[in-house]
Methyltransferase-like protein 25 isoform X2 (Populus euphratica), 502 residues
Amino acid sequence: MFVKKKPKIKMEDCNQKYSCRTAKETLEWINAILNFIKPYAFLTNAHVTNFFTHKLWQSIDPVWLHCLRNEPVQNLLLIPCGIIQEHWPASLKEFVLDLKSLAFPREQAHINKLFPGVNVVSLNTVLAQGMNFKKKHEVEVLSAVVSSVANSVGAQTIVDVGAGQGYLAQVLTFQYQHSVVAIDACSHHGTVTEKRAERIKKHYAAQMRKNYPGIGIPNVPKTITCRVMSTDMLKALTSMSPHIDNVERPGLIGQVADDKTSLVIAGLHACGDLSVTMLKTFLECKDVKAVVSIGCCYNMLSEGCLDIAGSQCGFPVSCGVKSAGISLGKSSRDLACQSAERWRSLKQDAGLHNFELHAFRAAFQMVLCKFYPEIITSSPSIGRQGKALRRQQQRRILQSSINCKESKHSSVPETISHMHELYLNPHMSESKTDDFSGSALHSHELSCNGGTRYNETAAASKYLLFKKFAQSGLSRLGLKSLQETHFHEIWKEAEPFAVWSL
């Protein structure tokens, strides 16, 4: 049984070494990060699917591996947040603490300190229709901030870039009475935005007629369907936006309005390069008085065009980082998007299952390399096989818990015995193993029958789950399945090297 231990040393107690108070200090921080990660480029540029095929564990300090291999899952989940254990090797503790000191602080800021006087208003049920709790919270806060900024700079119009279904634009229009233009690349989103806005408008129009007769009916946000590919395009759209009606792929791009305008550009989850384009537009377009952007999908930022004149790459943007000559690559950007707090918040079972799915996918890559080498060059994608497997496991866990409560003499011991036999003897017929590959037991299921039996059969359980994962992946790729012995051979090779040892 796993017993959660209270961490002995917490990185939160360590002082932040770096700051962004000045350009010089910011550049020092950037260079410190670059100097730290360069020796580990072979890891940051690696992909988890190649953990086994590239034998990545061979590059890790054996002392670290020996320590972490037997570490409780809950302690491993705390590492991204900089939490270490007293019994770890000094070099490992120093590594984790150095990493944490270089990371940007994640403490949530107090909105009233940043924007004095901002009043975050809860959305009514009409405006909040279709939003989940997270989206509702984001729209409530950001709309209040955008409205405050727009008022402070005297903006005539707010341009919502990457508007999606128009949640932010509609709140700014109906709750804060701003003139808003919503830009999105998807014509379907534009249609949804317009229909949703009309429904909201009917509600507000009825309220106005009832409570304020004679007052005009509120306008709805204008919509533009256009993929913003460059700063010049966004500049043209922002210049023309206050003077147009709803349009799709407007032919007016490039025509600049004669009279002066005052704009704020805003974005909630402006994906990848779109956030960079908004910042550049703010710098280059004098009509744009402010930008309020919450970026996302930083792994989608474009790279690789440092030497191309006039390039529109999304990273790097600053002269300081450009001068350092850094290139991250897709795998590093994907890794950078991982949330340390998300891993920290996982429970033991969920964390262990995440590790297992990564191990299955990495072992499946070994299957492809050994038996289907011709497909590797195409970078095959098998979709989210792990999520389907997880749902099946959760159903089995629930059913197993019920069975354990109902009877201590259930048929589970017979199943476990069969699993153990299968793991030791992979030459069993496919007809027998197929009956059990769809009902492989999770550690939670096995635990109800005693620790000894669990220890004897956990390996067989994981093997059956891997086999099911691999068969599903081969089916997704349209490839013929393998014999039982081949799956067993791959898993026996991969099993000793736990993926979480990295």
Notes: Residues 1-14, 246-258, 411-424, 426-452 have pLDDT under 50 and may be disordered. Residues 11-107 form one domain.
